[in-house]
Design a protein that fits this description.
about 45% strand; Protein Transport Mog1p, Chain A; mainly beta; 2 domains
Amino acid sequence: MKPADILPIYKDSVILGAMKDNMGVLFARYIVNICTVEPYEKVAEYYNGVLSGLQGFEEAAREGYYTFKTETGVEKDYEVSVIDQTLGYYDSQGLPENAKTVIMLMCNEYKELPKEYRADLVPVMEGSIPVQGSFYEYEDGKKEFSLLYDIKKDFEDVVAYCKEVMSGAGSYEEESSDFAGNFRGIKDNVEIFVSISRENDRCSYSILMSF
């Protein structure tokens, strides 16, 4: 499975399951779940060492649960969750009786947008992290993209991006506040709707494009 190229399977662990999810037009997700008799703290220290030197590294922790991940939005990102099974966080069905730690390995492998996407009209902001995306072709020939991204930029910078993208658009409409904004218009016979919202340490923005 793809996570293993960066995320090694922990030594002497038991593989619980592996799968690939096609997450629409933006990325594919590879997941491997494993468990081990090694204590939670030791496993967490190991995977912290594996990922901490990579670009975009972040970590989060609560009692009995560590998460290590990268957030770059470029080529591949990785995430490891290390769970203290002695606290009963993970469904014990199918686990060996002596399992102390469950590890979830995940890799997001990003894709190029389909050629039908009009990047000349709405370019994706540099530094964006893909969240989800879809592309539909309807029986009447109409095509539609729906894309969602996170980005670690100030809300005001994302608003400025939206206004620049929509400059010169026909039938232009704008609604904005200190925490959210909607921008709608038509460019080159393409209907465009961009929506943004302010989050704790980042912004989310969605692009809806139909033509």
